[in-house]
Design brief:
single chain, about 800 residues, alpha+beta, Beta-galactosidase, Chain A, domain 5, Glycosyltransferase, eleven-stranded antiparallel beta sheet, five-stranded antiparallel beta sheet, 36 strands, about 25% strand, globular, binds beta-D-glucopyranose
């Protein structure tokens, strides 16, 4: 938990008002900058102290063996883990020969700001060296959203009250030493010195290092250029070694004088390009970045963010913490996906090495739905990445004796990285998640080229998987047995309702796509006979239901299991998977994360209001939220079922997951799905937004703490703004042709420049469901709640 960190609650910034080394690693994740291609954790410029140094290039990994006590057919033999590439952030400083190190001397003040509109991290601090020389450091850092390979730092040192001899060492550091990992199995295993040097170069203000990973054979090139401004004489010397390139800048500053170093860092990697080609690539990127310099990069960054916020901003009146958190979350979702360009969007983005840098279903089910309405081109790119990994997914399906494609549960480059079968590879639902994202994207954008060139193939191959994974029983009913749904406290279950409903949607979407694109389908070998078999399976899909309890079963037989002994489980025994054997979790009614409840959101048309209310009331007391992917989904359904206070508390949990380090692992990287889930909780929860085929529906209702909620979204070439108060909702079409949406079931025709107001009906009152003891979300309704304008201090 960020127990000591002081974060001001401001609408457009995350401002840390003092530095606390105990929570340095957490703050490095919060202040991470990325564009989806390059990721820099918020490490201090001087490199030390650090919690977890992190510089990543999306797609750069190293291979390591996956040892098994007992081998089994189809187990992945090797794993892949994200590694630190050459660190270009480092700017060490010496003041009268003493290193600027915050652990020594006196730190007079230290402030860091993540500016969500300018897309930069700023740091201002004043430090008094052990010998009494006072300096001020002002550093601004960015990872460019417009120049994909570029990150940059503007670093300024000022002498405060006496003459100071300062030396700045701007470095590129490869194979940086990493602290040992804490033993949490979810954190990345440490791979020391994964880079083999190939080239080092230093000339003038230019530095370059090229390395190759030992086992995965990826070539990584990082180069830097500098613009130095200081009083005469300011001198520079450069040097390079296999793992280090350095520009040393020396100057003598009178009080009030400054030395400014602008550092531009270019990154590139390739599995195929030669050493000269990679060197040339990063050099060229530096020339492009240098042209126009820092000012142009900063202007482009601001313009890019202005465009994003014009389509994506969410305004919340009545809770400043949630206001800040939703923008913080959207900013990180943007950073994770903006320039990933046919690479994965990992569960932690590029903010840390948690989960070994792997991507899961989190991407398609949590992140892409948000991007589809805010930055749709990023969704197309992420799905094209999935398409590019089809060869590995087909191979995996064949290995498992299945048809079509079996996409991996966790991966960096497309191959299965899960060493664990029950809660890993058996989670076939990831495939339906990919299909869901394809349908959501095409229906949200109307991008037919994408459907034909990418969507169709993904739909066909995943439909084939479902058809071969399931079977018709003697009565013709279609079952998908022995799979793991989203709830990882049930495994190898028969007919997981979420999986079956999602597979049904997948099969039907594939059949429709084949009809729409017969020529392309033929090339994939898909004909009307095959698509008819998908329809048959979809129509005969078994959806387990307990008629006595009148609730849907999470999977066949789930409701007859023994209930978990919640009363006998202590607060410190959560998360359960770290304190109880899996076999016992598997055979009891206990739910790690929204599963059936998620189905009610993603397959909303399959459930009427009465079932939504009853199912929610049934699963709430069983759901322990041992995954950060749960709260946002529970928020959406709680809101729909009329439990607005509960929905509000869940929204806050999703929103503050990292700002308050609620799962105690923010140090390893941010929970990108939960951050995206904040948008989901607000827009789909309180806004009641659902996509119904080619149209949008809203059923807004605000919790009592919100006086207003406004959001923008993109839909089929239009930009919409929805503004909700407790009494009414106003719909405005900001750009694009007329559109008819629905408000609480009634059609509303929207024309440009003519906002339409509709009254918000009161919610149906139902008794609030219970959660397991110790697992209620923190309530935001009690006394002592922080209010507007306060400084955030961890709970
Ligand atoms: C959750 C998965 C999720 C993964 C990565 C696990 O704890 O149970 O659903 O995909 O974390 O976020």
């Amino acid at each position: 938990m960020i127990v000591h960190g002081a974060y001001a609650v401001e609408p457009w910034r995350v401002r840390e008002t003092e530095l606390n080394l105990d929570v340095l690693a957490q703050s490095e994740s919060l202040f991470a900058l990325s564009n989806g291609h390059v990721g820099w954790r918020g490490n201090l410029d001087e490199g030390e102290p650090h919690g977890l140094p992190g510089s990543y290039l999306n797609g750069v990994y190293e291979v390591h063996p996956l040892p098994y006590a007992e081998a089994g057919y189809g187990y992945p033999e090797s794993g892949r883990t994200v590694i630190n590439i050459t660190n270009g952030k480092v700017l060490r400083l010496l003041v009268d020969d003493e290193p600027f190190d915050l652990r020594y001397g006196r730190l007079v003040s230290h402030e860091r700001v993540l500016d969500l509109r300018r897309g930069v991290m700023e740091r201002v601090c004043e430090w008094c060296s052990p010998a009494g020389t006072r300096i001020r450091v002002r550093a601004t850092r960015m990872v460019s959203l417009t120049q994909r390979s570029i990150a940059a730092v503007a670093y300024e040192v000022e002498a405060v009250d006496r003459r100071a001899r300062v030396v700045v060492q701007s470095e590129l550091v490869a194979n940086e030493q990493l602290p040992p990992s804490g033993g949490d199995p979810r954190a990345a295993s440490v791979l020391q010195s994964p880079l083999r040097p190939e080239q080092d170069f230093a000339h003038g203000h230019r530095l370059r290092l090229v390395h190759r990973t030992r086992h995965s054979g990826l070539r990584v090139a990082v180069a830097a250029d500098h613009v130095v401004t200081g009083p005469e004489p300011t001198t520079t010397v450069c040097e390079s070694h296999p793992d280090l390139a350095r520009l040393t800048i020396g100057s003598v500053l009178e009080p009030g004088q400054k030395l400014r170093v602008e550092k531009f860092v270019a990154h590139g990697w390739s599995s195929t390009r030669s050493l000269p080609a990679m060197s040339a690539q990063v050099d060229a990127a530096l020339v492009a970045a240098g042209d126009g310099g820092w000012a142009r990069l900063a202007d482009e960054q601001r313009a890019c963010l202005d465009d994003f916020w014009a389509c994506a901003d969410v305004e919340v009146d009545g809770d400043e913490e949630i206001q800040q958190a939703v923008r913080f979350g959207l900013f990180h979702v943007l950073q994770a996906g903006a320039r990933a360009e046919q690479r994965a969007i990992p569960a932690k983005g590029l903010t840390g090495s948690g989960y070994d840098g792997h991507a899961f279903w989190d991407t398609e089910m949590f992140v892409l739905p948000v991007l589809a309405h805010t930055l749709p081109e990023a969704v197309a790119e992420a799905l094209r990445w999935r398409q590019s990994t089809l060869p590995a997914a087909r191979e995996r399906a064949a290995q498992l004796g299945l048809r079509g494609a079996a996409f991996p549960w966790r991966t960096i480059e497309g191959r299965e990285g899960s060493a664990y079968w029950p809660a890993g590879t058996a989670a076939f639902h990831v495939n339906a998640g990919i299909a869901h994202a394809v349908v959501h994207y095409t229906e949200t954008t109307g991008d037919e080229d994408f459907e034909r060139d990418t969507g169709l193939e993904l739909l066909v191959e995943t439909a084939r998987l479902w058809r071969s994974l399931g079977h018709h029983d003697h009565r013709g009913v279609f079952h998908i047995d022995g799979v793991t749904g989203p709830d990882e406290y049930s495994a190898l279950a028969d007919d997981n309702t979420y999986t079956n409903l999602m597979a049904r949607a997948n099969l039907l979407a594939a059949a429709r796509a084949v009809e729409r694109h017969p020529k392309e389908a033929e090339r994939l070998g898909a004909d009307s006979e095959e698509s008819a078999s998908w329809r048959d399976a979809a129509e005969a899909m078994h959806i387990p239901y307990n008629a006595e309890l009148r609730v849907h079963e999470q999977h066949a037989g789930f409701t007859r299991y023994q209930r978990w002994d919640f009363a006998g489980t202590r607060a410190d025994q959560y998360p359960l998977m770290l304190h109880f054997p899996y076999f016992d979790l598997y055979r009891k009614q206990v739910v790690k994360q929204a599963d059936l409840v998620l189905a009610m959101y993603t397959c909303s048309a399959e459930f009427d209001d009465a079932h939504i209310a009853r199912n929610f009331a049934y699963y709430e007391p069983l759901t322990v939220r041992d995954s950060s992917l749960s709260a946002c989904v529970q928020a959406v359904i709680a809101a729909q079922a009329g439990h607005l206070r509960l929905a509000y508390d869940y929204t806050a949990e999703a929103a503050l997951m990292d700002l308050e380090d609620l799962e105690h692992n923010t140090r390893d990287g941010l929970h990108i799905a939960s951050l995206a889930g904040t948008w989901m909780a607000l827009v789909a929860g309180f806004g009641g937004a659902r996509r119904a085929g080619g149209t949008l529906e809203f059923a807004p209702r605000l919790p009592e703490k919100f006086s207003r909620l406004a959001f923008r979204l993109l839909f089929r070439g239009r930009r919409l703004r929805v503004e909700i108060t407790r009494q009414s909702a106003a719909y405005a079409l900001l750009d694009g042709p007329p559109l008819t949406i629905r408000h609480h079931g009634t059609p509303v025709a929207l024309r440009p420049d003519t906002p339409v107001d509709r009254p918000v009906p009161p919610p149906v009152h139902r008794p609030a469901p219970e959660q397991p003891p110790h697992r209620k979300p923190n309530t935001r309704f009690g006394p002592g709640k922080r209010t507007a304008g306060v400084t955030r201090r961890g709970r």
